[in-house]
Structures are given as structure tokens and as C-alpha cells.
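pinging the channel bc i need a second pair of eyes. not urgent but kinda urgent?? the chain im working w is below, pasted from the shared doc
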Amino acid sequence: MYTGFIEGSCLVSSIMNVKSKYFDENFVKSEEFHYIKNKIQGRINNSGLHCVITDLIDNIYFYIQDGIIICNKKNSITVEDAIEHFEMYISSYEVEQIILDEEFIYNALLELKENELNKIKLKQFVKKI
């Protein structure tokens, strides 16, 4: 059976698109990428699709520093450029729908932010004790 591999850049561009639209942020934290990658990979697996999202991030389209991924301004890359470029590398319509699912990514980002807030609250509570 054939297993397809999709560059992590495809998912980064999708996450960045959602963050730009709904959070007015033009970057992706590596923690966000890995968290959402795991959730998306789970959806792909549960759908019976044979596809793996890799950790490979294209350095022509993206720049990574200190765990922050941004569009490569040196190459005049925008979020829209990245989405357009990486969409064509997703060979399965079903996989494309999962990776580009804005609502799912938005909810995953909210879940992650809520988890971060709960950790902060817990640390503050423990300091008081």
C-alpha cells in the first residue's frame, strides 16, 4: 500500500493563514505546529488515508528562529504565496480538506491557548501555597 508524505510546510501555511485571519498574527510557534500536526495526523489516520505529515519546513518559504516560524520576507513570501504553493503538493482531495480545515485549526489553536492559560493559573496557584 502506498503512503504519501506531505511536507510540514503545507500545514504551517494553513495554520499561518488561520492565525492571520482570526488572531492577527503572522507567525506559528513550533509548539503550535507540533500540537496541530498531531491532531491533524490523527484525523488523517482515522479517515483511513495513508499519508504522513513530516516535520520538514521549506526554508525558501519559511524562516525559523527560536521556535518561531514566519514567512521568508527575504524572498518576498506572503502567507497567500505559501498556501498557493503548497496546496498543489497535496495529491489527495480528502487530505487537502483535512489540512486546510480552518475551523478545526482555529479550534485547536483555542484549545492550545486555553491549555497555556490553565498552566499559568496552576503555576500562580502553586506559588500561593
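so The mean pLDDT is 88. and The first strand starts at residue 4 and ends at 6. — does that match what u expected or am i reading it wrong
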